[in-house]
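pinned: reference chain
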Amino acid sequence: MNTTIQTAKSRFSRFATSVGLIAAGALLFAGMASAHVTVKPSVSQPNAWETYTLKVPVEKNIPTTKVALKIPNEVVFKQYEPVPDWKVATEKDSSGKVITVTWTTEKDGIQAGQYQRFGFVAQNADQNTAAAWDAFQYYSDGSIVEWTGDEGSSNPHSITEITADATSATPAPAADSGHDSVGTAAGHASTDTAKDSNPAPTSNNAIEAAPAASAPASSAAQTTALVLSIIAVVLGATAVGIALKRRK
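pinned: its structure tokens
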């Protein structure tokens, strides 16, 4: 009888431990699921000189040392905000429009568990449309994560909905409206070609084509990730507590 009870307790303990490990895995997945490279705001007004923010989190245990951002047809890149220890290079098409902006560092880069913001100003199209931001994240080991997928994919790109109904967009000051050249700052050289910037690789996604009309529900995804994280913590703590109690 005692042997049967001990066997049952042992099996239950292993089961509880397994549940704890699964819950911990769910927590890790939920955390990673929300750690996407994003461009904000997700909604802006037509013809606005918008101040955009590229946010780059690190999902691996190695640093990110380079980020390349494809500029959608629906916006015109104007200026960038200098970031200490990061150099900026631009690639232009035959008409002189900036099509890629690349941030590179020779320093430590963005470390595991950290993120970095890169700010820039771009002028939106003068009509309702949607702008898809394809981004390429380079790690120090040479690996590249392409944030070029559609909504619902594992590596989605950000989309900014340009609409006259936008109420949260804040255009850049009127004093900036006459500047059509890319801004540069001391120590942050800007180039016109891809020769020195080693731009993003060619993607199968149609960068030049008009993107999907609806913006991804990033807030919903973050809420889902938070709920999953809470559930995972509760399940993990419960499983570990039961396992420890049964072993006594």
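why pinned: The CA atoms of residues 38 and 55 lie 5 Å apart. The chain has two helices and twelve strands.
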